[in-house]
Amino acid sequence: MRDLLMIPGPVDVDAEVLQALSAPVLGHLDAGFIATFGRALKRLREISLAPSAQPFVVSGSGTLAMELAVANLIEPGDRALVVNTGYFSDRMAHILERHGAKVTHVRAPPGGAPDAAQVEAELARGGFKLMTVTHVDTSTAVLAPVESLLKVANKHGVLSVVDGVCATAGEAFHQDAWGADVYLTASQKAVGVPPGLALLTVSPRALDTWRKRKAPVASVYADWAEWLPVMEAYEAGKPSYFATPPTSLICALDVSLGQILAEGLEARFERHRRMARAFRAAWSALGLRLLPTSEALAANTLSAVYYPEGVDASLVGRVKAQGAAIAGGLHPELKTRYFRVGHMNRVTTGDVLVTVGAVERALHSGGYRASASGTAVAAAQAALST
Ligand SMILES: *Cc1c(COP(=O)(O)O)cnc(C)c1O
After folding, report:
1. Does residue 119 share a domain with residue 51?
2. Are 130 and 51 part of one and the same domain?
3. Could you tell me which Gene3D superfamilies the record lists for this protein (predicted)?
4. Residues flanking ligand 1, CB < 6 Å
5. Number of structural domains, the chain?
6. What's the CA gap between 36 and 24, in Å, rounded?
7. Can you give the CATH number for the domain in which 200 is found?
8. Does one domain contain both 319 and 280?
9. 277 and 214, same structural domain?
10. What pLDDT, on a 0 to 100 scale, did the predictor assign at position 1?
């Protein structure tokens, strides 16, 4: 029997998305594919709430999406500020440095996030070209205060790149209204498609900065100059070739983006909030502590929860034996001390109850007795009933 897949990506995807993947492979010059790709690009712009942005859909993972942003916006010697909330912020810094940026970090202890005042204090020193923020850092389940961070970046005329890989289409984000220059994600998290696509929406200001570069982009595959004509052509209903697009995955993406828009973005954000609240009620009923240091910083797309006293990482395997696949820790300083549960994309009340029940049974089977059997499921039920 198949376990419920509740890791923070890849996530379970809808049957219609899978069906799109099982259709005969289309060529990239096929009229049906051209129409589908064009529609998917328009839909990506809608998902990011970025009517002015240029969408890019490129074969690769979320890490490529990060590199597609950095490689095009950074020239050697540029200064970048990394708002650091964990493992994926560190990865962004690593990519920035590889492309020649001088990186300054504004960090918080694991589970925290720098606030706008701390970031502004650094930006006010001047000289920064770019600020990066990890919308939800999947290693800590910290939801960064991205709207207020973008406000200070814009006040200081600094470009912004927001890593939405564990957030886009799950956490509220208004790219144009909030003034983000690049919002990037991958197909396999809240966007609800199997792994394999890097997705970006890029502001006119960022494209302008890229056009004025002096140094060439240090990667052919990551150069917007190769991809922009392709994206523009497909959106205009014409084919164009740089490197073969993953036609089947793009058809699946179009289906999923269509479903997301049919649900409605606000309704979808609210469903993620509601499921996350139910999980938090369950963790609290079990006497467990979250990594995020406040409710406001707790992501709605996943939970990161410390093991209680006397319980170790073997819990992950015991939860699997109870029917739900969850993940261990990822933050280098703490990874043996907590577990993670993804709750994004299709997540339903049923998934919440099955997962909470599996964690509760696994804890009890391991001898953990801080709560009576059924307490956590009841707490989740109560949260879902309000
Ligand atoms: C998963 C993730 C990435 C990396 O994506 P890959 O598809 O694994 O390359 C980057 N940033 C965040 C916030 C993520 O959650």
Report:
1. yes
2. yes
3. Aspartate Aminotransferase, domain 1, Type I PLP-dependent aspartate aminotransferase-like (Major domain)
4. 9, 61-63, 88, 134, 137-138, 163, 165-166, 186
5. 2
6. 14
7. 3.40.640.10
8. yes
9. no
10. 66
Measure 186 CA to ligand 1 centroid, in angstroms. 7
Q: Write the DSSP string, 311-323.
A: --THHHHHHHHTT
DSSP string computed for 338-371: EEEEE--TT--HHHHHHHHHHHHHHHHHTT--SS
- In the structure encoding, which two tokens stand for residue 81, read together? 């500020």
Residue range 122-143: mean pLDDT, rounded: 97
**Same domain? 209 vs 70:** yes
Type and span of the H or E element at 299: none
Choose the residue to mutate in 64, 67, 165, 340 for probing ligand 1, maximizing ligand atoms within 8 Å of C-beta.
165
Query: What is the CA(329)–ligand 1 centre distance, in A?
Result: 15
Domain that holds residue 322: 4-8+265-385
Which residues, in sequence order, are bridge partners of residue 306? 338
Q: Which pLDDT tens digit goes with each residue over 233-286?
A: 999 999 999 999 999 999 999 999 999 999 999 999 999 999 999 999 999 999
Tell me, yes or no, whether 244 and 256 share the same domain: yes
Identify the domain boundary among 235, 263, 291.
Answer: 263
Please write the tens of the pLDDT for every residue from 288-334: 999 999 999 999 999 999 999 999 999 999 999 999 999 999 999 99
Q: Which atom of ligand 1 lies closest to the CA of 164? A: 13
